[in-house]
Amino acid sequence: MADNQFWDDQAAAQRTIQTLKGLKGRQVPILAFQHGLADAGELLALVDSGDAQSLRQLAGDVTSLERQLEQLELQRLLGEENDRRAAIISIHSGAGGTESCDWTQMLLRMYRRWADDKGYATQLIDLTPGEEAGVKNATMIVSGPYAYGYLQAEEGVHRLVRISPFDANKRRHTSFASVDVIPEIDEEITIDIKEGELRIDVYRSSGKGGQSVNTTDSAVRITHLPTGLVVQCQDERSQMQNKAKAMRVLQSRLYELEQKKRDESLEQAYKQKQKIEWGSQIRSYVLHPYLMVKDHRTDQETGNAPAVLDGKLDAFIEAYLKWKATHPPS
User: Fold this and answer.
1) CATH entry, 83-330, from 3.30.70.1660, 3.90.1720.10, 2.70.98.50, 3.90.1150.10
2) Alpha carbon distance 328, 263 (integer Å)
3) Per-residue model confidence as pLDDT tens digits over 155-164
4) What pLDDT, on the 0 to 100 scale, is given for residue 10?
């Protein structure tokens, strides 16, 4: 970075800076823990058993070190190649009609709140409203250190049980939505896509009336014919900008596909894809007749369902990462 020609290539310079930030982000907590451990050791050697104040300070230092160690253990679990990348998260409504569309919108809000708490940037690039309420499906990019590493815990079917706000008889309903999470690939990774392999359609963006974004055919849908992958983007006013973003998502999906092939796990991954309905959920959110959120992979649970729906997901994410470390894919 001290080289005079460092900034000649702006894109390469930014990648180097991001790499440095990532390395410092992993190193600094380790050094802080080592220094804290050494200080606690020195205090332990000096403290008198009758010195209540020093004993309280030592106990506080040990508690702080325990918390730091838990965070370092979590950091160690985020060591895979893609963990450091931004995440592309897609949410799709499942069995349950309007109920599931509303549930999809609740999940979208939950992930936005979680990202806000982390200081991550979110960019909603596609959203299809439900016919009566809520959202049929939505795709959002979450950018920040290790966004994919954390959010991979959310991939799967999510189940909601509650008294329906759309039922005049106030009956209990069960709704489903699926969450798909992939890493956003870096610019230095090149996925070869031939022009003849793409079908590009343009259409009018959906949204609030009166905005110029909705008065032209600015939305873009790209179909990759060899694989059948479809991506779309409608959040920009320019058709060219929407096309560029859609291509980024398509490249990320193709990259994920190639990674699965390279790991000889593509067939297994397809076998694990389940219907968005009863019996396939990874997590249940119960709002009636009691409050509970439970992850069925890790058995992590809490009675504070409103906090979880407000983005407090860290306990579930940490439990998943620890579970994943002891349950490697077959």
Assistant:
1) 3.30.70.1660
2) 13
3) 999 999 999 9
4) 85
